[in-house]
């Protein structure tokens, strides 16, 4: 059983991204012929034939809008795959374990003001990686990112005290 919660892209953000992404581009859906794209809306890999879209997403900007943080230059945006149609996505399936744990990942730590505090390369995201990150009291949240391209996969927030 996992201790921390992998958070997909928020449903309200998904609604906006399906109109225009965080770079202002309109949605451009396509059928995923092969499957295997890491979907950030439901935290699973796409299946062959699903309609998906690659959108620009700024996770720290959206978190900062909720918290009032000022990430400055750390406000980055990058590509993420989502289901193109809201009714095609039911969100995460509640499966035990962390998503996209099939390769090395970076667990990047952020402070409450949105500054990067460092990161750790892990074989796969697990409770120990998140516990290590949150052992530092100045860490407010972490992003799990792909090593090969640095793409955002999901966030994990500090558990409530």
Which structural traits does this protein have?
alpha+beta; 3-stranded antiparallel beta sheet; 161 residues; 4-stranded antiparallel beta sheet; 3 helices
Description of the structure:
The structure is a single chain. It is built from three helices and nine strands. The mean pLDDT is 94. It has 161 residues and is α+β, with helices and mostly antiparallel strands. The chain is globular and about 45 Å long. Strand 2 and strand 3 form a beta hairpin. The strands form three sheets. The protein has a four-stranded antiparallel sheet, covered by helices on one side. The protein has a three-stranded antiparallel sheet with strand order 1-4-5, with no helix packed on it. A two-stranded antiparallel ribbon has the order 2-3. It has helices at residues 11-17, 59-67, 127-134, and strands at 30-31, 38-39, 44-45, 51-57, 78-83, 105-111, 116-122, 139-146, 152-157.
Give the spatial strand order of the biggest sheet: 7-6-8-9
Distance between the termini: 20 Å
Quickly count the helices: 3
Overall shape: it is globular
What percentage of residues falls in helices of 4 or more residues?
10-25%
Low-confidence stretches: none
The computed structural class is alpha+beta
If you compute it from the alpha carbons, what radius of gyration comes out, rounded to the nearest whole angstrom?
15 Å
Mean pLDDT: 94
**Strand composition percent:** 25-35%
Number of strands: 9
The biggest sheet amounts to: 4 strands, antiparallel
**What series of H and E elements makes up the topology?**
HEEEEHEEEHEE
């Amino acid at each position: 059983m996992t201790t921390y919660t992998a958070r997909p892209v928020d449903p309200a953000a998904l609604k906006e991204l399906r109109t225009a992404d965080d770079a202002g581009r309109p949605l451009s859906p396509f059928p995923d012929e092969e499957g295997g794209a890491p979907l950030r809306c439901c935290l699973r890999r796409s299946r062959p034939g699903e309609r998906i879209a690659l959108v620009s997403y700024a996770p720290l900007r959206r978190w900062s809008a909720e918290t009032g943080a000022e990430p400055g230059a750390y406000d980055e945006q990058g590509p993420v795959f989502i289901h193109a149609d809201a009714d095609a996505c039911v969100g995460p399936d509640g499966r035990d374990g962390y998503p996209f744990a099939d390769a090395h990942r970076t667990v990047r730590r952020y402070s409450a003001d949105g500054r990067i505090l460092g990161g750790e390369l892990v074989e796969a995201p697990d409770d120990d990686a998140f516990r290590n990150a949150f052992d530092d009291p100045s860490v407010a949240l972490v992003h799990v990112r792909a090593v090969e391209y640095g793409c955002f996969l999901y966030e994990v927030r500090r558990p409530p005290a």
